[in-house]
């Protein structure tokens, strides 16, 4: 896992993301609006970049080709509104060229016999778990070709797949359906069904799952190696706000977030990540203080009232999303993760827009709350300090 | 006694009277022990935090006589059990007393307004986070104020009327009712008391434990709005951290009568700056006879905060209050 070191990025396309964001937002046309007054309101513009290292490696993959020809992808990945269980499993279906509606994601419970999967945190899921599912599917594909060669003649490399069949490249009429291959694999047993030659390096947990599944289907198993560099997740956000100088409140008029996270695997899931991250970033920059009474050590940010999670009326009417969609070389499907960056980009852009509206480099803190804005405007920010916050204070 | 678990609702005797007589009799009998339950949006927070332990509750929501909006000879009467949503949507209130429907529309969230009542919004307890935490502060019967201490977190607290306790009036509808010169109808077995909205709320110098004059055995059953302020020019604004589901940092409610371009009379009240809705009589006097204009607003705005004493972290309420009053006058 890459930490805060000088590890090179696996790939990065921030200039492309900035250009795309500027075009989508209409930066050239809008930049003149900064600090324009409209009654008691003033316009502020902000651009932010969000980053998080966005991928791990070294996990395990288990896929099965069932006797009815369906693909089962075992996965410990969940769904945080991100459809991650689906997007990561998709890599296996693509390798085997099997339609998504013929693929079953077996997830959600440990007793579904799952492989060791990365924790779904730190923007890593898509990178980490497409590697394992891709690898397990490659192992399954190799076994399918080996069985076909065994039964139909020639060598494994003489075979290819299409339309849920394994067939000879030289004569596509010679082949087997996926169901037939799976059934044949079950007759053969041994390494084909997880009863022998289970990769030694797989985790004990994954091996236990394999042992429970052994003999039930033609099985693909994979222990992921380690990747080399640091896969980044980036988001670029452009925002326009209107801040009321009399109330200290602001409205987000426009918000555009562009993801730079390699190849896009699941557009709907990615759009959700970007929108959810935007709400998260609004909370970080404008609302969610972490406070403790310093004398008594009591947490003051308890409950939904004092934690100030944004409500729907604190978010813009529309959050525009987009993505660069250029592949990363260290992931088999080109993907990198995108959890935290979606928050960071919005947070930075919003803090920038607030400072811009007020005409300077201000606050150096998040969140910037209504009281801080009013104190600044009233010139009392020196004598009336904001509440000491325990997060992101400069 | 039944063993009490902290993981479930505490043991409470629940009374659900369906008529006024029964409710008032229960209130009289149970006295201090009879916790009045309406929409529960204050009550259940206390219970969930395990910081209040009522032994008996009188649920008032089944008493139809205390719900609804009716026209009277000199205005309208609103049952205290009327939900905030019903007040927001009522055509009579919208047309004549839109100050109240607007204020009610800014309370909490739609879900809370659907069950929360006007009486509950007015009678809710202080929202000071130290007090709500169940600490032994003055308001809770102890002898310390955690909020008004050298390091107290008192951003949401009072600018005025601090007297050992610095909690503020949390209601959005209370300032609107003060501005509308409403009358509170308080019922008990002994009959009714009629109390001006302005006198209904009390600060810690008068009573440090209760925020209203309501006494054990009494129930706020109705609110009357007089014709005097019907169809006046109104202004309500609430500034809170969140745009929904939050308490005011400061709110303002103004009823202004304009005649011949000049302000004939006005009632202005601010919430969340004192333990009671703070009526700004000095501002009201200063604007009488003047045009309802930006100039007038600018001239008098600083009067709004006259006498304010900021605590550690609530300085911002002074300019905020002045600005809101300015906006109210400017219109």
Largest interface: A-B, 37 and 34 residues
What is the SS-derived class of chain B? alpha+beta
Q: Beta-strand level of the residues of chain B, as a percent range? A: 15-25%
Q: Which oligomerization state do the chains in this entry correspond to?
A: heterodimer
What does this structure look like?
The complex is a heterodimer of chains A (about 400) and B (about 325). Chain A is of the alpha+beta class and about 400 residues long. Chain A has two domains: about 15-55 and about 230-380, 2-Layer Sandwich (Aldehyde Oxidoreductase, domain 4); about 60-225, Aldehyde Oxidoreductase, domain 4 (2-Layer Sandwich), CATH 3.30.365.10. In chain A, about 35% of the residues lie in helices and about 20% in strands. Chain A is built from ten helices and 14 strands. In chain A, strands 1-2-10-11-14 form a five-stranded mixed beta sheet, with helices on both faces. Chain A is elongated and about 85 Å long. In chain A, about 50% of the residues are buried. The model of chain A has no long low-confidence stretch (mean pLDDT about 95). Chain B is of the alpha+beta class. Chain B has a domain at about 15-60: Uridine Diphospho-n-acetylenolpyruvylglucosamine Reductase, domain 2 (2-Layer Sandwich). Chain B is about 30% helix and about 20% strand. Chain B has 13 helices and twelve strands. Chain B has helices spanning about 20-30, 45-50, 85-90, 90-95, 100-105, 110-115, 120-125, 130, 175-180, 195-200, 280-285, 295-300, 315-330; strands at about 15, 35, 55-60, 70, 75-80, 185-190, 190-195, 220-225, 235-240, 250-260, 260-270, 280. In chain B, the strands form three sheets. Chain B has a five-stranded antiparallel beta sheet. In chain B, helix 12 runs antiparallel to helix 13 (about 315-330). The interface between A and B is large, with 37 and 34 residues.
């Amino acid at each position: 896992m890459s930490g805060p070191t000088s590890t090179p990025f696996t790939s990065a396309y921030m200039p492309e993301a900035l250009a795309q964001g500027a075009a989508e937002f209409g930066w050239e046309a809008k930049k003149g609006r900064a600090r324009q007054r409209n009654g008691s309101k003033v316009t502020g513009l902000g651009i932010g970049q969000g980053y998080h290292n966005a991928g791990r490696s070294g996990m395990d993959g288990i896929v099965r080709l069932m006797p009815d020809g369906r693909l089962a992808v075992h996965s410990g990945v969940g769904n945080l509104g991100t459809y991650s269980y689906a997007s990561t499993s998709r890599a296996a279906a693509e390798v085997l060229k099997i339609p998504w509606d013929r693929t079953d994601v077996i997830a959600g419970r440990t007793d579904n016999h799952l492989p060791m999967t990365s924790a779904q945190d730190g923007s890593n899921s898509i990178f980490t778990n497409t590697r394992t599912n891709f690898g397990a599917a490659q192992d399954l594909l190799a076994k399918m070709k080996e069985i076909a060669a065994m039964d139909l003649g020639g060598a494994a490399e003489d075979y290819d797949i299409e339309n849920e069949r394994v067939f000879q490249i030289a004569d596509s009429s010679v082949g087997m359906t996926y169901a037939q291959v799976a059934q044949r694999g079950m007759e053969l047993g041994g390494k084909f069904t997880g009863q022998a030659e289970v990769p030694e390096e797989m985790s004990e947990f994954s091996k236990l799952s394999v042992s429970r599944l052994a003999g039930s289907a033609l099985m693909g198993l994979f222990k992921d190696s380690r990747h080399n560099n640091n896969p980044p997740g980036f988001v670029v956000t452009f925002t326009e706000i209107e801040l009321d100088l009399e109330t200290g409140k602001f409205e987000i008029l426009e918000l555009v977030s562009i993801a730079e996270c390699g190849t896009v695997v699941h557009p709907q899931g990615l759009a959700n990540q970007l929108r959810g991250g935007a709400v998260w970033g609004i909370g970080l920059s404008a609302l969610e203080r972490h406070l403790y009474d310093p004398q008594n050590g009591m947490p003051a940010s308890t409950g939904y009232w004092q934690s100030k999670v944004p409500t729907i009326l604190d978010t813009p009417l529309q959050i525009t999303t987009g993505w660069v969609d250029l592949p990363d070389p260290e992931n088999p499907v080109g993907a990198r993760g995108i959890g935290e960056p979606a928050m960071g980009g919005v947070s930075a852009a919003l803090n920038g827009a607030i400072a811009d509206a007020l005409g300077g480099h201000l606050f150096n803190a998040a969140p910037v709350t209504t009281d801080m804005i009013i104190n600044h405007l009233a010139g009392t920010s020196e004598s009336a300090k904001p509440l000491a916050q325990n997060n992101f204070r400069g | 006694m039944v063993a009490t678990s902290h993981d479930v609702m505490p043991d409470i005797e629940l009374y659900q009277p369906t008529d006024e007589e029964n409710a008032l009799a229960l209130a009289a009998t149970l006295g201090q022990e009879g916790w009045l339950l309406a929409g529960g949006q204050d009550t259940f927070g206390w219970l969930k935090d395990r910081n209040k332990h009522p032994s008996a509750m009188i649920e008032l929501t089944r008493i139809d006589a205390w719900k609804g909006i009716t026209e009277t000879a000199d205005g309208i009467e609103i049952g205290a059990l009327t939900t905030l949503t019903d007040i927001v949507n009522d055509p009579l209130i919208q047309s004549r007393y839109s100050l109240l429907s607007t204020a009610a529309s800014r309370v909490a969230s739609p879900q809370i307004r659907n069950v929360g009542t006007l009486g509950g919004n007015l009678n809710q307890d202080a929202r000071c986070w130290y007090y709500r935490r169940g600490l032994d502060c003055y308001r809770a019967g102890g002898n310390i104020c955690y909020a008004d201490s050298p390091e107290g977190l008192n951003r949401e607290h009072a600018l005025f009327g601090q007297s050992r306790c610095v909690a503020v009036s949390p209601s959005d509808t209370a300032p609107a009712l003060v501005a509308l010169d409403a009358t509170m109808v308080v019922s008990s077995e002994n009959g009714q008391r009629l109390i001006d909205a302005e006198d209904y709320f009390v600060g810690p110098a008068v009573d440090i434990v209760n925020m209203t004059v309501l006494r054990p055995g009494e129930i706020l059953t109705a609110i009357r709005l007089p014709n005097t302020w019907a169809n006046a020019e109104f202004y309500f604004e609430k500034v809170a951290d969140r745009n929904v589901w939050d308490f005011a940092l400061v709110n303002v409610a103004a009823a202004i009568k304009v005649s011949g371009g000049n302000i004939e009379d006005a009632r202005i009240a601010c919430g969340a700056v004192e333990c009671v809705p703070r009526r700004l009589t000095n501002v009201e006097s200063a604007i009488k006879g003047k045009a309802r204009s930006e100039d007038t607003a600018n001239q008098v705005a600083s009067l709004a905060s006259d006498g304010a004493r900021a605590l550690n972290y609530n300085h911002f309420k002074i300019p905020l209050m002045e600005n809101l009053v300015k906006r109210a006058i400017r219109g």
